[in-house]
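QA checklist item 7 of 12: single-chain prediction sanity check.
[x] sequence parsed
[x] length recorded as 281
[x] structure emitted
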Amino acid sequence: MAEPRFVAACVQMRSGRDPLANRDAAVAGVREAARAGAHYVQTPEMTSLVERSRTALFEKVGPPEDDPTLAALRAVAREAGVMVQVGSLAVRSGDKIANRAFLIDGQGEILAAYDKLHLYDVDLPNGERWRESATYTGGASAVVAETPWATIGLGICYDIRFPALYRALAEAGATVLTAPACFTKQTGEAHWHVLHRARAIETGSFMISAAQGGRHEDGRDTYGHSIIVDPWGVVLADAGGPEPGVILAEIDLARVAEARARIPALAHARPFTVERVGRQG
């Protein structure tokens, strides 16, 4: 039996401080992708709100059942008959906020949800300082979702820097891996493409990541370059910069089996211990 093929799309956005304007932009992007023939459409991390202020963030977000962007994307998935992966939304989780992805089927039902595991706490050389842990609560479980076309491993942004997560997703059956992002311009210029190609090559999987791009209302600059990479590390589609828009590529899952047969790294992994040698002083 031939492996399935489907058309995947990424909606690149420049979300601002108005959740309803961001909602409308996301819905328009999904509709555009569906009209272009997409079966699966992904939006970026923080689809509904890019907001640096912790106070403003808490004022604008609530539980997922009350989130207008999630409701609208469920409706457009049902309307267009496409699967939608909401890269992530900020939703209330106790006294903090969860950075949560949702996978929605063509009937508008939520198939899976995933909370970002790895929180971005860094000081960059250009003076940018990020402390996601001050506002967000990290997830505890990786998520693999079965769909009619592919088994999808869910990740978000900073997760892509943790190859053990992506290997575990592939070992659990994922053939498509994801890292929808709000990557900073500085780190994106240095690492975005190489990280995506590396995760694809290491696991013999497709990598699909929609991104935020450009100068946002809260002052941050994000890299854009939404990307689709095949299991051999070939870039099938790239937004080419930070401007909002839609990219598409055909996903032929036969390429997964071919790549994993040529370089069977998943099958060849062996347990090992680390021996530390030498002396200090």
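[x] summary fact logged: Residues 185-203 form the longest helix (19 residues).
[ ] second reviewer sign-off
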